[in-house]
Write a structure and sequence with these properties.
By secondary structure, the protein is an alpha+beta fold. Helices cover 57% and strands 6% of the residues. The protein has a 4-stranded mixed β-sheet with strand order 2-1-3-4, with helices on both faces. The termini are far apart.
């Protein structure tokens, strides 16, 4: 059964975490907005007949199931496609890592929109400069340092975040680092020197055949200044 993925057109956003899992799994899926226009997403999003309505995209539809929230979608896909451990404790640990990635992604977004999405970046430049400085110097190193620590402590070795095989958390960490490198290239380059295991994990994920094929394809949307990770040179340093 084909998965239906609903997300905003023209930007990687949170939908990219789901795309990477689907691509690595070799799953058949349709980007509904790309194929049928944004009205198709609004139809699912605002469907009054859905008893469990999604708050916001990304939305995954699989048969009668309608699932939202990136981490929950990945939990569902991980169980179905071998991208999560089977043991309960390890599954919960993988989910915890994914939620921490979501925290970092939100803080990266808030570096350029600290007053909220109701204001354009141009309306909050002074606040953004202050928030971005804290993120670059304090928060980003703290997050990346935690991922480095859990790689080092993995009893199965430091090639993966959980156990001895790839999980959706590894794919998500790869994309998060890619996003940080786009938004804050100077700061991220400095930070990655101190977390060699995180940097190496990203390189390994990028070389995986299905991921590499996806990266090289026109299915992947490039980072841009409409997404979560935005590059404003004045916020880097």
């Amino acid at each position: 059964m084909t998965y239906e993925l609903y997300y905003w057109p023209g930007l990687p956003g949170r939908g990219e975490f789901v795309r990477l899992a689907l691509e690595e799994a070799g799953a058949t899926y349709t980007e509904m907005v790309r194929e049928a226009g944004i009205a198709t997403m609004m139809g699912v999003w605002q469907d009054s007949d859905i008893a469990t309505p999604p708050f916001a995209p990304p939305i995954l539809k699989h048969g009668k199931k309608v699932i939202a929230q990136t981490a929950l979608i990945l939990l569902y896909l991980g169980d179905r496609h071998g991208l999560a451990p089977k043991a309960e404790a390890a599954r919960l640990w993988t989910h915890q890592i994914q939620l921490t990635i979501a925290d970092c992604v939100l803080e990266a977004h808030d570096a350029h929109h600290p007053l909220g999405v109701d204001f354009y970046y141009e309306d909050q430049k002074p606040e953004s400069a202050r928030r971005a400085a804290v993120f670059r110097h304090t928060r980003m190193p703290k997050f990346l340092g935690w991922f480095e620590k859990i790689l080092a402590r993995n009893p199965k070795g430091d090639r993966f975040l959980v156990g001895g095989r790839l999980s959706y958390a590894d794919l998500s960490l790869f994309h998060m680092v890619e996003g940080l490198s786009y938004a804050f290239p100077k700061a991220t380059k400095r930070a990655l020197v101190k977390v060699p295991r995180v940097a190496a994990l990203g390189e390994r994920v990028a070389r995986r055949p299905r991921v590499a094929s996806y990266i090289a394809s026109d299915r992947r949307t490039a980072f841009n200044e409409d997404g979560i990770f935005r590059h404003y040179p004045e916020l880097d340093g």
